Amino acid sequence: MSTLTLTRPLSPATAAVLKAEFTLFRREPGSIFWIMVFPTALFVILGSIPTFREVGEAVPGLRLVDVYVPIAILTALLMACLQAMPPVITGYRERGILRRMSTTPVRPRSVLIAQMALHGAAALVSAVLSVLVGLLVFDVALPEQLFGYGVALVLSVAAALALGALLSAVSRTSKAANAVGAAAFFPMMFSAGLWMPVQTMPDVLARIMELLPFGAAAQALGEAAAGDWPSWSHLGVLALWAVVLTAAAGRWFRWE
Amino acid sequence: MTVIEVADLRKAYSGRPAVDGVGFTVEEGEIFGILGPNGAGKTTTVECIAGLRAPDAGKVRVAGLDPVADHDEVTRILGTQLQESELQAKLTVREALELYSAFYDRPADWRALAERLGLTDKLTTRFAKLSGGQKQRLSIALALIGGPRVVVLDELTTGLDPRARRDTWRLIEEIRASGVTVLLVTHFMEEAQRLCDRIAVIDRGRLAALDTPSGLIRRTAGSTVISFTPSRPLDPADLAGLPGAASTATDARDGRLTVNGTDETVNAVITLLARHRITAHQLRVSDATLDDAFLDLTETSAAPSAAKGVPA
Predict the structure, then answer these.
(1) Would the pLDDT of A4 be above 80?
(2) Could you tell me which residue ranges the ABC transporter domain spans (chain B) (predicted)?
(3) What is the β-pairing status of strands B280-287 and B16-27?
(4) Does the model's pTM come out above 0.95?
(5) I need a labelling partner for B64 at 20 to 30 A (CA). Which of A78, A163, B171, B249 fits?
(6) In sequence order, what are the residues at sequence separation of 6 or more whose Cβ sits closer than 8 angstroms to the Cβ of residue B282?
(7) A169: distance to nearest CA of chain B, Å?
(8) Domain segments of chain A: what residues?
């Protein structure tokens, strides 16, 4: 944040929008719970099952609890970007909040950017929480290829935000955004491996999941956690999704 | 000095014209009304002035600037309160005022504005918890916060109770007294008649009339209304033939007659009654209201005949 401020100072108006949206975000206990608490809580519950803490045949050399750290991170990301953010943005459009802002010197774009920044940041805080709880409670090693882990995480955030923006673009009402968000959430969570880690899926299924953004994200994060540089095919799939989803969101987004 | 200039404005949505050649100018310091039935093109006109929509054809200027091309500059001159524009539900009044203050280089003092609009004891209340009148007052405050030269108020009092409506009217007069030009969009005749210096009546995308409220009333056929209950039945045909009579109507319940006409008609009615030795009970002579003028103007364009023959 500080480097960003140094290189390109935020205008007072953009800073005010960010501040106001941050205040509003703190008033949404539901969102805070599902993004920041639930993923780690779920991870702790799963980790307290004894078999999750044993090295099995499912993933060679790893305990399931090790595999579930990236899954908890992706859960937080999808909660933030698919469940929490689209109804907010769609509601702002539906209730004329963006329209009102277009009559001021500030562009409504700044609200969208603030929303994406806040939900992305909340998911990253949740990610750090999952990694720390993994380390402190279940002795899950920190990612060995830290830089590769970071790259995979940043691309995952970009893809998730872009998908959320696309859902906000195509939903006319916040009710619709809720429904569409929930409908997208479950397949995306499946591909990320919430019910069955991608590493344990049958080969054909795993190959298909790797073509989806969060299947590729789960694989890339898993590889980086194990100390390898994430394979370029996974990073490439993730980057391609981020670009395509961003373009689609930009194409279909309506300000009113 | 002209602050808003609209000339031959045209805007169609998927081929259907919403505004079809509207033109008017608003002078500095006036309260200018845009009046018209629902769907007449009022809001589209205002959205073109606010730079939210690009016109298909015609010219719109705010202080000489093009609201679309010079959008940023226009937003500093023009404060806008749009129809059905809400705020974030959990944003408090104070936060909203601070947020919108930050949008402008030299904002008005929001505390003074809150004081003036009676929002001081609501500063910590969230938007969703405000009453309709309070929401509208906050909307006005936000439209004024940039210290604009012109403020656009679209359907400001729709949905307000009569007391809140009257309070809002007083506010609009105060805004003008402080030197801000007001462009008021409404479909309430009483509001337009009470507040506006001049009114543009828009009907089906066209300018039906542009005049002062009293000018609009005067130009309607039948701007004087005579009503009475005759002591015995009177042939409506006799009345219709009187000089200046625009329309006559008989109330089927009590036989009360209403004649719309001119001052000349009043004398003619009295002469007619004297000749037939009829007594007029509860005789009332009143001026038509803007309501009558509006119906006359918008009906005239609906039907070619200007006379409103009301069946008895």
Answers:
(1) no
(2) 4-229
(3) unpaired
(4) no
(5) B171
(6) B227, B228, B229, B256
(7) 19
(8) 11-252
- Across residues B127-131, what is the average pLDDT? 94
End-to-end CA distance of chain A: 31
Residue B289 corresponds to which tokens in the numbers above?
Answer: 């209201």
> pLDDT tens across A154-193, in order?
999 999 999 999 999 999 899 999 999 999 999 999 999 8
Tell me if B102 and A15 make a contact (CB, 8 A cut-off): yes
Q: Closest Cα to residue B193, out of B174, B211, B171?
A: B211
Alpha-carbon distance of A145 to A171, in angstroms, equals 39
By C-alpha distance, the chain B residue nearest A95 is B86
Map out the domains of chain B with their CATH numbers.
2-211 (3.40.50.300), 221-289 (3.30.70.1340)
Burial class (CB in 10 A: 0-12, 13-18, 19+), A111: buried
Under 8 Å between Cβ of B147 and B106: yes
Residue of A94, A95, A100 for testing the chain B interface, max B β-carbons within 10 Å: A100
* CA distance linking residue B146 with residue B74, whole number of Å: 11
Residue burial A113-144, b: 16+ Cβ < 10 Å; e: rest? ebbbebbbebbbebbebbbebbeeebebeebe
Query: Which tokens is A113 given?
Result: 């950017």
Scanning A23-52 for CB atoms below 8 A from B yields 23-24, 27-28
Q: Is the pLDDT of residue B273 over 70?
A: yes
Chain centroid to CA B218: how far? 17
Average pLDDT over chain A reads 90
Higher pLDDT, B311 or A252: A252
Residue B64 has which token pair?
A: 């000489």
Closest to B99 (Cα-Cα) out of B85, B87, B84, B83: B87
CA proximity to A184, closest of A88, A37, A77: A77
Kindly determine whether residue B80 and residue A20, on different chains, have CB atoms separated by under 8 Å.
Answer: no
pLDDT tops 80 at residue B296 = no
The per-residue pLDDT for B299 is 66
The SS3 call for residue B11 is strand
Chain B CA closest to residue A106: B103
Task: Taking residues A191-213, report their average pLDDT.
Answer: 90
- Where helices occur in A27-108 by DSSP H, the ranges are 29-32, 38-47, 64-78, 85-94, 97-102
Is B143 exposed, middle or buried, given 0-12, 13-18 or 19+ CB atoms closer than 10 A?
buried
Q: Across the interface, do A103 and B76 touch by the CB < 8 Å criterion?
A: no
Q: Which of B82, B95, B98 sits opposite A103 (nearest CB)?
A: B82
Q: For A57-74, what is the mean pLDDT?
A: 86
pLDDT-derived band at B260, boundaries 50, 70, 90? confident
Average pLDDT estimate for B4-30: 94
Cross-chain residue pair B103–A92, CB shorter than 8 Å: no
